[in-house]
Design a protein that fits this description.
284 residues, alpha/beta, 4-stranded mixed β-sheet, two-stranded antiparallel ribbon, 10 helices, 8 strands
Length: 284
């Protein structure tokens, strides 16, 4: 991926020098649930982090933090990708006659306090609609590469673009519509809506790649394959099979590997918001 000459975003909030500690009330079960859900990118933190008021108020401590040269480069990469999503969605919203409100991306190390609650790095990257911020501990990228088998800088960019996709859904009011249905539907039916929301975020990530490459020529040979591999590796079916040895489709919240690949590819090839209407799609 060609990124080093790209614009750096001014919407980066670096909290890597802030150390937080917190403990789940009632033992580690609540935290374990959060971690397991977080393996699916932790996309619905407003719901996940409200599990029973799970956390005691975390203690905060400023500490000296000296990132490695490799981590500094990774932080710079994230800033460029975020700037690229700003340019893409800024142009798309402008074409629709509205103004894109840019999210902030928070870098943290170990644990973080968001408007959606206290979160630990094991949850993975997440978007918090309450403060319109994307949160990521850069160590996740090592897990993406080694544990999940999805190496490559474009796979890393896909993670950011997916989370920003949730921000776009928040701005469009789609997230609120889905979340408002939670009390009216059975868990299985609500999961189906959640899958459509997540697949749309995958499609939005592909849409970003389409526009970014057409306007700024960011793609290199093998980049698309990296993103498709990442989408495949984080499908609900694959993660469930790895974690417990069997698959329960009714419990899917993010979509199967095949579905995630399909919708990222749809956004990449079509390059339009209309093509990403997963809620009207007969077949996912």
């Amino acid at each position: 991926m060609r990124w080093k000459d790209g614009r750096r975003s001014g919407n980066i909030e670096d909290r890597r020098g802030v150390k937080l500690s917190g403990k789940a009330k009632g033992g580690g079960i609540g935290l374990l649930v959060l971690v397991l859900v977080g393996l699916f990118f932790g996309i619905d933190p407003a719901l996940m982090l409200q599990l029973g008021g799970n956390m005691n108020t975390p203690s905060m401590q400023e500490s000296s933090y000296t990132p490695s040269e490799a981590e500094n480069e990774l932080a710079e990469f994230v800033s460029v990708v975020l700037a690229d999503t700003e340019d893409t969605w800024g142009a798309l919203f402008s074409q629709a006659g509205t103004r894109y409100q840019e999210p902030t991306l928070v870098l943290f190390s170990g644990a973080v306090e968001s408007a959606c609650g206290f979160a630990q790095a094991a949850m993975g990257p997440f978007y918090c609609p309450a403060d319109r911020k994307v949160y990521i501990d850069l160590s996740f990228y090592q897990d993406l590469r080694t544990t999940m088998g999805a190496p490559g800088d474009f796979a890393q960019a896909y993670v950011i673009a997916h989370e920003v996709g949730h921000h776009v859904q928040n701005l469009l009011g789609l997230s609120d519509k889905v979340h408002s249905m939670r009390q009216r539907l059975s868990p299985a039916d609500y999961n189906k809506l959640s899958v459509r929301l997540e697949l749309q975020a995958d499609c939005f990530a592909g849409l970003w790649a389409n526009h970014a490459d057409r306007t700024r020529h960011i793609l290199e040979q093998g980049d698309v394959e990296e993103a498709l591999n990442a989408a495949s590796m984080i499908g609900d079916d694959r993660l469930q099979q790895q974690s417990r040895g069997y698959v329960t489709p009714d419990s899917f919240t993010h979509g199967s590997s095949k579905q995630r690949v399909r919708w990222f590819r749809t956004g990449l090839q079509a390059g339009s918001v209309q093509a990403c209407d997963t809620f009207s799609a007969v077949t996912l």
